[in-house]
Amino acid sequence: MTRPIYLVLLSDHVGGAEIRFFRIFKQLIKNSSSINLIFSKGFLKKVISFDEFKDFSSYSNNIKDIKTFSYYQKKSFNTIYTDVCSIVETNSILHFNQNFPATYPKKITHKTIYTFNENSLTRFSLKDHLFFVLILLRANITDILDPVIQLKYKRLLFFKKEINRTQAGSVNPFDYKFNFQQKRNSIVFSGRFTNQKQVLLYANSIDQVYKDLTLQNISIEFYIIGDGPLTSIVNKKVSSLRKKGIIIHTGFMKDYKQIIENSKLFLSIQKYNNYPSNSLMEAMACGNIPITIANGSTKLLAKEGYSYYLPENFSPKQLSECISGIFQLSKQDFEKRATLARETIKTEYNVNLAAKYYYNLYNSL
């Protein structure tokens, strides 16, 4: 690639979509110095607070500064595009990565790609749909992460060919250890403490799970990793459970990678859709068996053959029966499912595949 490429990140929060984006950038820049990032300096401070992105300060020559996303949300839809164009070369390729149709250029002056990360249209108003259709029509290429949403818009705009489905990988599985013999009886939930993630539903089910596993003489540890609007409620519930002798770890943990390398089960129980969950990909790379909600496109990642599925509003008894059933598997079957989960990441959701996909996309313009 000889033309400058600018990856524009429209966010003030470092979540799964942002982590995926930065991992892909790190893969791309290994092969081309023409890859650059654009986001606010304040956001950069949040990024480098993550251990795996501490080296981003060394990419200073490849990072350009714009105002915060919250600032642009209060402006017209054209403002971001105009500001970005004012700080890049005229022959640049602009790659916007966003979770919402917050950018609508009145006039396309550069080769432009839009990556759209929403995995549900439940937040979309009619105006949002209209703006997104206009983006699809104006951009050179639109790159949609969720296959259901991609198919919907591809049918709507059947005459436009450049509506691609994103290569969803965000994990290098070889960065994660997988040794089944060293795994412990632990269950991990990792995500924002919100109603959509159903963290309280999980916390309120732990007592039942613990009681049923204790009757089977199975010792177990629980992890609830993250924070968010429901943190105080979660902490109050965890405190009451600990008084019963249940081992629960909660909050943010610096040794998160080691935790999922040693755990056996991972809960990914978000409402509506959880494809492609970054935390689930990381857990599967370590050989964790997924327990998920079979909604949206989630089963494309957490496949039948090694995953377990719950109804969206599951009861404590349903979760307990699911977990108890997994621990009744023979050691051979347990290890086989764990290995299959890891293989899915190696062959289908490897970050190197995603980087190659974008590399080819840039070369096509």
Please describe what this structure looks like.
The protein is 39% helix and 16% strand. The strands form 2 sheets. It has a 7-stranded parallel beta sheet with strand order 3-2-1-4-5-6-7. A 6-stranded parallel beta sheet has the order 10-9-8-11-12-13, with helices on both faces.
- How big is the Rg? 21 Å
Binned strand content = 15-25%
Instruction: Give the spatial strand order of the biggest sheet.
Output: 3-2-1-4-5-6-7
**Mean pLDDT over the full residue set:** 90
Helix/strand structural class: alpha/beta
In CATH, the architecture of the largest domain is 3-Layer(aba) Sandwich
Give the termini separation.
10 Å
Helix content: 25-40%
Please report the number of helical segments: 14
Oligomer: single chain
* General form: elongated
Sequence of secondary-structure elements: EHEHEHHEEHEHEEHHEHEHEHEEHHH
Low-confidence stretches: none
Largest beta-sheet characterization: 7 strands, parallel
Question: CATH topology of the largest domain, what is it called?
Answer: Rossmann fold
Counted up, domains total 2
* Number of E-state strands: 13
The CATH homologous superfamily of the largest domain is named: Glycogen Phosphorylase B
Q: Topology, pairings included?
A:
Elements: E1 5-9, H1 16-31, E2 35-38, H2 41-47, E3 63-64, H3 69-73, H4 79-85, E4 93-98, E5 111-116, H5 126-138, E6 141-144, H6 147-156, E7 163-165, E8 186-190, H7 199-203, H8 206-215, E9 221-225, H9 231-242, E10 247-251, H10 256-262, E11 265-268, H11 278-285, E12 289-293, E13 308-310, H12 316-327, H13 331-348, H14 351-363
Parallel strand pairs: 1-2, 1-4, 2-3, 4-5, 5-6, 6-7, 8-9, 8-11, 9-10, 11-12, 12-13
Helix pairs in contact: 1-14, 8-12, 11-13
